[in-house]
Amino acid sequence: MRAPQHNSEFSRTVDQLADDSNPYAPEVGSLPQNDLSRADLDNVNKTGTTTIGITTEDGVVIATDMRASLGGRFVSNKNVQKVEQIHPTGALTMVGSVGGAQSFISSLRAEVNLYEARRGDPMSIDALATLAGNFARGGPFFAIHPILGGVDSEGSHVYSIDPAGGVMEDDYTVTGSGMQLAYGLLEQEYEDGLANDDATTIAARAIKSAAERDTGSGNGVFLCEITDEGVEINGHHDFEEVV
To answer: What is its EC class (predicted)?
Structure first.
C-alpha cells in the first residue's frame, strides 16, 4: 500500500479534524426559513377569520367562520372547517396561513397520539398548550394565531397561542381579523357558569357580528362543543339555525 503523498487531501485529514473534538457527533440542523415576498403573500390562502373560545360549566365551546381568501381580496373557499380535534377532549382553530395552520394541527395531533401511546394516559391540556407555544415559537408554521380549547382533570381551558409562541389562558378569547367585532358582543354577553347551549348561541352571534363587517370572515359558522366525553363539531351555513 502506498503512503499518502505529502499535502494530499488524505494526508491532511488529521489537520482538518483538529478543531473537531468529536467528528462522529450529530450535526445541529436548522429549521426552514419562510422567505416569502409580498407577491407570494398575495397568493397564500389565508383564513382571515374570526375564531372564538369560551369556557363553560360543561366544558368548552369554540366557534369559527367558514371563509378563506387570497390576499384578503378574493374569497377562495366558502366552506373551510377552521376547528379540528387534536386531542380526545381538545380542539384547535385555524387562523392565518392555511398551510401553516394545517401543518401545525397535524404536528400537534401526532405529538398527542405519541404521548398517549408511550404513557397510556392523555396529555393534559396545559401541557398541550405549552407544546403548542413551543412549536409556534420555534417551528416553520407561518403566520398562525390559533385558539386551543380542551377539558381535562383540572377543568375547562381556553388558550390563545400567538405567532411568537406566547400562551395565554382566559375564560374566553378571540383571534383573527374580526376579533374586535366579536369581542364587543362577548364582553356584554359572557358570564360565569354558562352552559354549553347558551355559550354556543353567544359564540354564533359573535361570529355573525364579525361576518357583517369583516371582509375576512363569513359564509357561516362551525361550532365545536368539548366535554369530558369528547369533541363534537358541526357546520352551519345559515346563522339563523344557531342564533
So the answer is: hydrolase
Overall number of domains in the chain: 1
Quick check: 102 and 86 in contact, CB under 8 A?
Answer: no
Asked if pLDDT for residue 169 goes beyond 90, the answer is yes
pLDDT digits (tens, 9 = 90+) for 69-120: 887 678 989 999 999 999 999 999 988 888 888 989 999 999 999 999 999 9
Catalytic status, residue 51: no
Long-range contacts (CB closer than 8 Å, 24 or more residues apart) made by 4-13: none
Q: What is the distance between the alpha carbons of residues 180 and 50, in angstroms, rounded to a whole number? A: 9
Does residue 96 lie in a domain region? yes
Which pLDDT score is estimated for 171?
Answer: 97
DSSP for residue 59: S
Whole-number pLDDT of residue 148: 98
Q: Which domain holds residue 81?
A: 44-241
More confident residue, 20 or 53: 53
The one catalytic residue in 49, 50, 55, 200 is 49
Nearest to 55 by CA among 232, 225, 182: 225
C-alpha closest to that of 82 among 172, 216, 185, 183: 216
Give domain status of residue 57, yes or no: yes
Cα atoms in the Cβ-side hemisphere of radius 13 Å centred on 6: 0
Give dist(CA 162, CA 61) in Å, integer.
20
Residue 233 belongs to domain with CATH number: 3.60.20.10
